[in-house]
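quick one, 248 residues, struct below
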Amino acid sequence: MADNRVRLQKYLSECGVASRRKAEEMIAAGKVRVNGKPAEIGDKIDPSRDTVEVGGKKIKKSKGHTYIMLHKPRGFITTMSDEMGRKCVAQLVENVGKRVYPVGRLDRDSEGLLLLTDDGEFANAMTHPTKHVPKTYRVTVRPLVTDEQITALTVGVEVDGRMTMPSEVRILERQEGRVVLEIIIYEGRNRQIRKMCEALGLEVARLKRTQIGSVKLGMLKQGDWRNLTDEEVHKLMTAASLDRKAAK
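---
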C-alpha cells in the first residue's frame, strides 16, 4: 500500500498556514494537534485520514490552483530556468509540489515579495497594465533626496519616453549619505523604480518589495515561501477589480 503521509510542517505550509520553519516553531510551541493529540516535530500525517488543528481550528488543503509568495533574495533572477546557469527562483520553489511560475518580476539586484502561481487568470489580473494593483517598496537611495525629487517621484517621471503614473512616496529614514523611502506604484514597468530614481540623479542602493495589494511580506525569511490563504487571493483579485471566481 502506498504511503500517502507527508511531514506535518510541509502540510501546514501547503495549506497556507505558515512557512515550514514557522510551522515547526508552531509545532514546538504546542499550537498544533493531530487527531486531538499534541503534534511533535517530525510527525507525518495522511491528509485524507488525519485531522489537523492549529489553535483549535481545523486545517484543510484546498483543491485547485496554487498561489504562493516567495521572499526572493538578491542575486536570483525571476525565471524558472536560465541557459547561463545563473541562480533563479525555480531553485527556491522546487518543493512546492506543482509547477508554478512568477507573477511579474523582481530584477536580479532586488529582493522581497514575489508571487508565483499556476493560475493564468490570476497572473494576468496581477500584471495587466489596466488593473493597477498597488505594489509597495522599501527603497534606499543615495546621496540625499530633495523635496523637488520627492515631488517628481510622486507626480511622475519620464521613463523610456513616457511618463510614469503618479506614485505615493514618503521618507522612512534619513541616514548619513542615504535616505530610505517607501514608494507605492500602480504599474509594473521593467525596472520602473530604478529608472525613476536614475532619471532624477538618485542611486538605488537597495530595493525591497514589501507588499502587493493588501498582502504583506511580513516576517517570511529570505529564500522561504508559503501558500497564500484563500482570503489573500480573494483580496488580490478584488484589488484587480475582478471576481475571484474568474480566476478559477
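The chain has six helices and 17 strands.
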